[in-house]
Every structure is written in structure tokens, then in C-alpha cells.
Amino acid sequence: MTDDQVAGARPVRTRRALLAGAGAAGAAAMLAACGGGDDDGAATTSPGPQVTNTGDAGGGGRQDSQSLARTSDIPVGGGAVLSAQGIVITQPSPGEFRGFDPKCPHQGCNVTTVEGGTINCVCHNSRFSIEDGSVQSGPSPAPLERKDVKVSGDQIALA
């Protein structure tokens, strides 16, 4: 028989048991406080956030419904690298918009600029056409991968 099991001895409480008990008591207190104060005993619920017509009501999981840029953001004869959205959008001629994957096929660096009619990867100086993503110069063995885009009003989104 151990010292803890001696008749009449108080049970030994471990730190783990003490913390578990304190956590359970705290959780019970929080649940009691959240019970609401209605006299009829019915629980009330929050109506949640107001739904508006802006943004993606699907939570951003549907890429085709999310605007990437405005048409005015993309210069004619140039383009923009949208790193956070994972796309390069170009406008080779007025009103004609193209989308490309920003990953350079050479070694996977992301392209960083669109200047002088080309999409440029500064890692190893590969240059790609703003028209079709084809290799214009550099070590890249393949063109940039196309991404279909659509224009709705003045908004550009993935198709």
C-alpha cells in the first residue's frame, strides 16, 4: 500500500486533474452566461451579418465570380502582374484582355513585370508575349500557361 492509499488519507490531486476541473467549471460558467435572459426560456440567435450585393457570397471559393481587376487598371499594350490572385492580365489591343499563369516554366519563378510588350521574369530574363504568352527571349523552354478571363462591364474575372 502506498502512502496515498493509507486509510483516512486525503486523495492526492494532480496538477492535470486540477486544471481539467478548472477548465470544466469555466466552460460551464460560459455556457450558463450564454443561455440568454429571455423570460420564456427560449434561446435567441443572432441574425448574422447583413448580405449585400458586393463581394462573393460563396466565400471566395468560386474564382469565376470574383473580380480580379478593372479594365482601366490594365494598360493597352501592357498588363499587370496580380501576384496575390495568381494571374497576369494583359491588354494587347484595346478591349482585348488575356490572362496567364505568373509561374515561369523555366524554373518556377514568378514573373514580376509587364513592360515593352512582354511579360518579364527577372530570375533568368525570360520574356513572354503579352498576346499569347509565347517565349520571346530567355531560357524558358515553354510559353506561359493561359488562364481564361472574362470581362463584365468594367470588371475582369476568371472565366
UniProtKB/TrEMBL annotation:
InterPro entries for this protein: Rieske_2Fe-2S (IPR017941), Rieske_2Fe-2S_sf (IPR036922), TAT_signal (IPR006311)
Region annotation (Disordered) ranges: 36-75, 132-159
Sequence ranges assigned to domain Rieske in this UniProt record: 66-158
Cell membrane recorded as keyword: no
Keywords recorded for this protein, A-Z: 2Fe-2S, Iron, Iron-sulfur, Metal-binding
The UniProt record lists the keyword Iron-sulfur: yes
Pfam family for this entry, one: Rieske
Cited PROSITE patterns: RIESKE (PS51296), TAT (PS51318)
Domain of life: Bacteria
Comp. bias regions, Polar residues: 44-55
Protein name: Rieske (2Fe-2S) protein
